[in-house]
Write a structure and sequence with these properties.
CATH class of chain A: Alpha Beta
Number of helices of chain B: 5
Order of helices and strands of chain A: EHEHEEEHHHHHHEEHEEEEEEEHH
Number of strands of chain A: 14
Helix content of chain A: 25-40%
Number of helices of chain A: 11
Largest sheet of chain B: 5 strands, mixed
Strand order of the largest sheet of chain B: 2-1-5-3-4
Number of domains of chain A: 1
Number of domains of chain B: 2
Radius of gyration of chain B: 15 Å
Distance between the termini of chain A: 47 Å
Strand content of chain B: 15-25%
Shape of chain B: globular
Structural class of chain A: alpha+beta
CATH architecture of the largest domain in chain B: Roll
CATH topology of the largest domain in chain B: Ubiquitin-like (UB roll)
Oligomer: heterodimer
Radius of gyration of chain A: 18 Å
Shape of chain A: globular
CATH topology of chain A: Uridine Diphospho-n-acetylenolpyruvylglucosamine Reductase, domain 3
Helix content of chain B: 25-40%
Number of strands of chain B: 5
């Protein structure tokens, strides 16, 4: 790998100051995407600010209405958390579907959503549950957080500190895995929440998105058949060696049906 | 600018000055000369570099040595007992001939120990699913799965 500077941040304030001082520095969370990208020179920050020792960024708290997960909480901690399994089992299931066991032992919630890979799993849960992303500066609603391919509402020097997930009545997540990378070829998160039904799709387009037509259909009847005949136009969906836009459009409907079924238990 | 890194590896404290960009697997192999941890793909796919950090299996090729600062690291060299008695997982791999060329074996064993810690009574389906981060390019999975299923109760009994 190429040479870069490294700093271990002691606190959120310390990290934010270091990032503000150097516009070419990047925050290092679990590094499961960033280190790989740096090896390939797809990313080439001049310096890394390691968030790994900031205790205040880790942990899971449930208060009956919300589940608040610290940005540096590892995927495996979410998978095995009794609080998560009880409050939002679909979220524990989703975390267990990310990468492989070794990647889950390092990768973090905050890293995943700040990176906003178009095929990552967590953005589907954050958007599908209508979560609130808390940063060191403000609170951002999920609907305003994910902006485009690898792009979020985060400003330079702004760090995700935690995500607050409202506890839904029920929720389900099903993805069709790209078998080599285990990223979502298409993943659909469906949730029936206090403020209505939400359907979020990852993997299909450059950025996670909602499907209002499916949400409307599920609001009148929360059952797999409600979405069975709702087809997305293929135009604008991702196209690569693994799947055509038409195939991805087809998968959105199939995964949505299965996600509703999963939510119904 | 070299940075100071220190950690515990296989029960022994180690410290060195390394370049910031040093990967944990390079530190283990090239600085500590513990070459049992392998580099297969170098892209966090194959799992040959699997080690334990603070009791959890991680891929040492996909993290910096600095990310393991202060951590407790276990590599394949530290798995057997001090008198050379193999760990039950290593013994099961030997018993079931769960290797062909042997390149993936250290990572397989480290991953398998973590697997049975998280799933003390795994079914064959669980073992196969949970091995998705370790590749055996000889495709010797059949005996690897048998070995892990055989070792699981013995590893559980160690605690």
């Amino acid at each position: 790998m190429y040479a870069f500077d490294y700093q271990k941040a002691k606190s959120v304030a310390d990290a934010a100051a270091a990032l503000a001082k150097n516009p070419d520095a990047k925050a290092l969370a679990g590094g499961q995407s960033l280190i790989a990208a740096m090896k390939l020179r797809l990313a080439a920050p001049q310096a890394l600010v390691d968030l790994g020792s900031i205790a205040e960024l880790r942990g899971i708290k449930a208060d009956g209405k919300h589940l608040v997960i610290g940005a540096m909480t590892r995927h495996s901690e979410v998978v095995f958390s009794g609080d998560v399994k009880k409050a939002i089992p679909a979220l524990a299931h989703l975390a267990g579907e990310i990468g492989d066991r070794m990647v889950r032992n390092m990768g973090t919630l905050g890293g995943s959503i700040a990176h906003n890979d178009p095929a990552a799993d967590y953005p589907a849960a954050v958007l599908g549950l209508g979560a609130t992303v808390e940063t060191n500066k403000r609170k951002v609603a999920a609907d305003d957080f994910f902006k485009g391919i690898y792009e979020t509402a985060l400003e330079p020097g702004e760090l995700v500190t935690s995500v607050s997930f409202p506890i839904p009545k029920r929720a389900g997540y099903v993805k069709f895995k790209q078998p080599a990378s285990r990223f979502a070829l298409v993943g659909v998160f469906v949730a029936e929440t206090g403020s209505g039904v939400r359907v979020a799709v990852t993997g299909a387009s450059p950025c996670v998105f909602r499907v209002p037509e499916m949400e409307k259909a599920l609001a009148s009847k929360f059952a797999p058949e409600s979405v069975a005949n709702i087809k997305l136009p293929a135009k604008g969906l991702n196209s690569d060696i693994h799947a055509s836009p038409e195939y991805r459009a087809h998968l959105v409907t199939v995964m949505a049906k299965r996600a509703v079924q999963a939510a119904l238990g | 600018m070299p940075v100071k890194v220190s950690m515990t590896v296989n029960g022994k404290p180690v410290a060195a000055e390394v370049e910031e960009r040093t990967l944990l697997v390079s530190f283990i192999r090239e600085h500590l000369r513990l070459t049992g941890t392998h580099v297969g793909c170098d892209t966090a796919q194959c799992g040959a570099c699997t080690i334990h950090m603070n009791g959890n299996a991680v891929k040492a090729c996909n993290m910096l040595a600095m990310q393991a600062e202060g951590a407790d690291i276990l590599t394949i060299e530290g798995v057997a007992a001090a008198d050379g008695t193999l760990h039950p997982m290593q013994e099961a791999f030997r018993e079931h001939h769960a290797l062909q060329c042997g390149f993936c074996t250290p990572g397989m064993v480290m991953s398998a120990i973590d697997l049975v810690k998280r799933h003390p009574k795994p079914t064959e389906a669980v073992v196969r699913a949970e091995l998705d981060g370790n590749f055996c390019r000889c495709t010797g999975y059949h005996n690897i799965v048998k070995a892990i299923l055989d070792a699981a109760p013995k590893v559980a009994a160690m605690r």
